[in-house]
Amino acid sequence: MIPTLPSSLGALAPWVDARVFGPAEVHATEVVTRTDPVCSMLVQLGAALALWAPLHGHVCIDLGNAASMVAAELATSGDSVGDGFDQSPVDVAARDSNNPADQRSSTTASANGSANGSANGSANGSANASANASANASANASANASANASANGSANGSANGSANGTAIHALPWPDVASWLHALRSSSIVRVVTGPDPTTVLDDQ
Questions:
Q1: Are 26 and 12 in contact (CB under 8 A)?
Q2: Cα 197 from Cα 45, distance rounded (Å)
């Protein structure tokens, strides 16, 4: 979700459009910085990043490395073939073997049975081979498609991550020295030089 920016935070639009800051950061930054009547964009960005850091697992924000921290965070946060032959059995024993006609019929039936058996066996073998070949081809195609999808996903993810990183670094990040000076000069920032036992959310 891209939040609607209040007019006072218009300078943060590039970071909001790049989806660096969401509604939580924008709303909290507006609340935190409203007490500084001359709050600059540098202070607003610092406050927004100070709020962004713990929301994304960081204990603090390194202003000198802010672009890389944000880019790295966004990169880790998108199945019976018929044979056509008559397979009825031939009753050879019911025929008279002494009758030439029956002998011819028996021989013909035997030959036909052998031919049919051979043809059926061949047809079934061909059908099975065709089915196996089709199954293997389908399995190979599926495996190839899966491998290609995985490779494409990895390539796209890498390309997107690289593009996002480039876009984040292209944002108008301020000069670190000027940024620190603006933060030190702001009434809403307390500068400490060592361990600070004072509660951060003190009552002012």
A1: yes
A2: 26
